[in-house]
Amino acid sequence: MATGTIESLRQCFYLKRYSRKMRRWGFSITVLLLLLLLVAVSAIVLYYFSLHLKTTINIEGQVNQFKSSLSNHHLILLTYMRSGSSFVGAMIGAHPDVFYMYEPLWTPRRALGGLTKLRYLNGSELNLSEDQTTFWFTSVQVLNDIFQCRFHLLDVGTLTHTHMYRSPSTEDYAICLNISHVQDLTLKEEIISKIPSCLPLLTSACHQAKVKLVKVIEAFMDQAINLMLSDPLVKVLHLIRDPRAVLISRKEFGFYPEDGVGQNSWELCVQILRDLELYVHKRKQFVGRVLTLRYEDIVREPLDLGRQLYQFVDLDIGPEFMDMIWNMTYAGFPDGCNVCPVRSNATVTAYKWRKRASFKTVARIQNNCLDLINLMGYRSFTSERELSSLHLPAVHRNYDPRFLQVLIRK
Ligand SMILES: *[C@@H]1O[C@H](CO)[C@@H](O)[C@H](O)[C@H]1NC(C)=O
Ligand SMILES: *[C@@H]1O[C@H](CO)[C@@H](O)[C@H](O)[C@H]1NC(C)=O
Ligand SMILES: *[C@@H]1O[C@H](CO)[C@@H](O)[C@H](O)[C@H]1NC(C)=O
Ligand SMILES: *[C@@H]1O[C@H](CO)[C@@H](O)[C@H](O)[C@H]1NC(C)=O
Ligand SMILES: *[C@@H]1O[C@H](CO)[C@@H](O)[C@H](O)[C@H]1NC(C)=O
C-alpha cells in the first residue's frame, strides 16, 4: 500500500510541475479540478503517513523499510573552498524535493579563535576560543540539527547570514528577515528579534523535503563519519577538485598571500588525503553511502553526472533538469560571479588556472600534492609549455576504485 501511495504522489508531483503547460494546451477545468482533488487526497495520505513515521521512529527494521520507501536522505556535500561546490550544491538544491542549506558552518568556524562568541536564541553564548574539540562537536550538532529541521537551536550568526539567500529553500526566510541589511549594526538587533516569526518558513520547507542537503567546507570526513554512524539517513558526497586549480583560485580570491602557496598546498592536500583515508578504512561499514567525485568529471559530463547525483539520493528528474544543468554549464550564459554557479562554458572556466598560473607556482603545489595528484588521476606538468597546452588534459586517467588500496598500503 505504501508503495502505491508513493507512486501516486510521484505522479502528482509530475502533474503539478507540468500543470502550467497543460493549461496552455487547453486542458479543461474539470481535469484541473480532478488534479487538485488528487493533490488534496495525496496530501492527507502523506500527512497520516508522516505521523505514522514519527511514532515508529525507534523501531528498527520497520523504520528502515519506511525510510527506504520514502527515500529520505541527509546529504553532506563535503568539500574544500573553491572546489566547485557552489555549482554542485545549486544543481542538487534546485530540485523541489531538496532542502538545501548553504555553508551553515561558516559562522561557527569564524568563531574559532575567540574573536566572537556564538550567540543562541535562548540567550546563552559560546566562546569557542581555540578549542578545536568544541568546534568539532558544535559542527556535528549543527549538521544534525539541520537534518532534524531544528533551526531554533542554531546560532544567531548563522540564522542571520546572507548565505540564506543562496539557496531557493532558505530564500523566503532571508526575505522575511530582510537579512541583506544585517551588516548595518543599528538594524542587527531588529533583524534578530524577527527570527522567531520567520523561522517557520525554514522549518516547514525542511520538513516537506525528502532530501536535506548541507554544503560544508569547514568540516571534514571524521565529522561526516560520526554523523553516518549516528544517523542511517546520512550520505556523503565527497567532492574533490584538482588541488592546483583550487590553490590558484584561492590565491586569486585573496585567501592567502603570494608566498603562502607552500604551506597552503601542504595543508589542503594532507587534509584531502586524510579524508579519503578515513573513509577508506571504514568503507565496509558505509557501502553505498559515500560518493567520491572529481569536479572535472562533472564539468566534462554535467548531464550524465548530474543524473547520477540525483540517483544517489533517489530523486526523480525530468527533462527540465537536464535543461537547467545545461544552462548552468554550457548554454553560454555569462559567468555569474566568483562564487556563482552559472558558467558560460564550464570547461573553459574550470581550466582557466592553467593560463593564469606560473609554472613555478604549479611546480610548488605539485611538490606538496604529488600523492593526491597521482591518486586522483591528475597529470603532473613538467614545463610551462605543458601547463598552458590545453590539448594536454589535466585529468589524464580515471581514478581507479582500487586507488583506495594504494591509500591503505601507505
Ligand atoms: C573567548 O575566550 C578567550 C580565552 O579565554 C578570550 O581571550 C576571548 O576574549 C574570549 N572572546 C570573547 C568574544 O569574549
Ligand atoms: C541554549 O541553546 C544552545 C544551543 O542549542 C544550547 O547548547 C545551550 O545549552 C542552551 N542553553 C540553555 C541555558 O538552555
Ligand atoms: C529592509 O530593510 C531596509 C532598511 O531598514 C528597508 O529600507 C527596506 O524597506 C526593508 N525591506 C523590506 C522588504 O522590508
Ligand atoms: C534555459 O535557458 C533557456 C534560454 O534562456 C530558457 O528558455 C529556459 O527556460 C532555461 N531552462 C531552465 C530550466 O532554466
Ligand atoms: C566549451 O569550450 C571548449 C574548449 O574551448 C570547446 O571545445 C567546447 O566546444 C565548448 N563547448 C560549448 C558547448 O560551447
Question: Can you put this structure into words, describing what you see?
Answer:
This is Carbohydrate sulfotransferase 5-like. The chain crosses the membrane at residues 25-49. The chain is α/β, with parallel strands linked by helices and 410 residues long. The chain is built from 21 helices and seven strands. The chain has helices spanning 2-24, 29-55, 62-70, 85-93, 106-111, 132-147, 156-159, 168-177, 185-193, 195-208, 221-230, 243-252, 261-282, 295-300, 302-312, 319-329, 346-350, 353-356, 359-375, 384-388, 403-409, and strands spanning 73-78, 98-102, 118-119, 125-126, 211-216, 234-240, 290-294. A five-stranded parallel sheet has the order 2-5-1-6-7, sandwiched between helices. The longest helix has 27 residues, at 29-55. The protein starts with a helix and ends with a helix. One 2-acetamido-2-deoxy-beta-D-glucopyranose binds at residues 120, 122, 124, 153.
